[in-house]
Amino acid sequence: MQMNWKRLLCDRRIGVRTRARSAGDLRTEFEKDYHRIIGSSSFRRLQDKTQVFALDKSDFIRTRLTHSLEVSSFAKSIGQNVGRFILENHLDDSFTIQNQGDICDILQCAGLIHDIGNPPFGHFGEEAIRDWFERRMQTLYYKGKPLTELLTPQMLQDFYHFEGNAQVLRQVAKLHFLQGENGMNLTCALLNTVIKYPVSSLQIRPESGDLKEKKLGYFYAEQDLYRTIAEETGAVGVRHPLAYILEAADDIAYKTADIEDAFKKGFISYERLHSELMDARELAEETGPTDPVALLDQQLSDAVLRGVDDPTLYAVQNLAVRLQSDMIYLATKGFTDHYREIMEGTFTSDLFAGTGGEWVMEALGDIAFRYAFSSRVILQMEVSAGTILDYLMDRFIPAVLYYDTERQLPLLDRKIVSLISQNYRQVYHIYSSRTDDEIEKLYLRLLLVTDFISGMTDTYARDMYQKMSGIS
Question: Which of 336, 354, 375 is a domain's end point?
Answer without folding.
Answer: 375
